[in-house]
Amino acid sequence: MLADERQQQIVETVDQHGTISTADLIEMFGVSPITIRRDLNELAERGRIVKVHGGARSAQMNNNPAFDVKANTNHAAKAAIAREIAGLVRDGESLMISAGTTSAAVARELNTKRNLTVITNSARVAQEFSPESATDIYLTGGRRAPNDALVGPVATSAVACLNASSLITSVHAADATGLTTPSVEEADTLTAMLGAVERVIVGIDHSKWGVRALATFARWPQVDVVVVDADFPAEALDELKNLVQKVVVAS
Fold first, then answer.
1. pLDDT per position as a tens digit, 139-158
2. Residue 217 scores a pLDDT above 80
3. Phi, psi at 221, each rounded to 5°
4. What is the mean pLDDT of residues 229-250?
């Protein structure tokens, strides 16, 4: 395969999935790590992709891949973050949990907790709780977005009249300025969630850092705990520790 053809396929794959790791690209094309790194450097210089630690991210900031597409990326990182976040939750706690594949992974881990009350704008998150978990689930309603989030005025109004002890959310993008999403409607719902809780816990895998999407829904002073994966860049980790009271690296 010619380099131009391979690079075009890389761009199409990254745009479809949102992010992809260098290891996945090496396996996909059967080429050396040096070749893939050269491809990513050239594509980044031309603005076709955004290089992130351990891989690449779509240069289309308003690209919001479907849930099933996102679910196929960074499994290990999301699972580690989910376990760590679940460990921060107490039995009997009331939670708001946003839509997202990392949030769904957290919900899966929370099945061991007792007497939780969960408010979520994601049917995917709600479905992760088994009937045996004795968790009360409240779905916000709203318009179903491509990433399976329930958004819009119905969702935002539902959240605005409820209260919970903690918000658990993942992110589409994050940098030193705050947390962002490609969807203005989803940002409104997330902003309402932030205003309805006492504690905000954010899970960020390494592929989400250093990118800014269309709509900001939170600034760092609003965040209490950030959980990142072990591949999070060291310089970004140092930056986060100056922005947030508590930063946890999931193992």
1. 999 999 878 899 999 999 99
2. yes
3. -60, -20
4. 93
Concatenated DSSP letters of 1-64: --HHHHHHHHHHHHHHHSEEEHHHHHHHHT--HHHHHHHHHHHHHTTSEEEETTEEEES-TT--
Reported confidence tier of residue 60, pLDDT bands at 50, 70, 90: low
d(CA 154, CA 151): 7
**CA–CA dist 248, 213 (Å, integer):** 24
Is the pLDDT at 103 greater than 60? The verdict is yes
Q: Is 246 helix (H, G, I), strand (E, B) or coil?
A: strand
Name residues whose C-beta falls within 8 Å of residue 229's C-beta, 6 or more positions apart in sequence.
74, 76, 77, 78, 80, 81, 205, 206, 249, 250
Beta bridge partners of 164: 197
E-only strand ranges, 44-116: 49-52, 55-58, 94-97
The two tokens of residue 202 are 């954010």
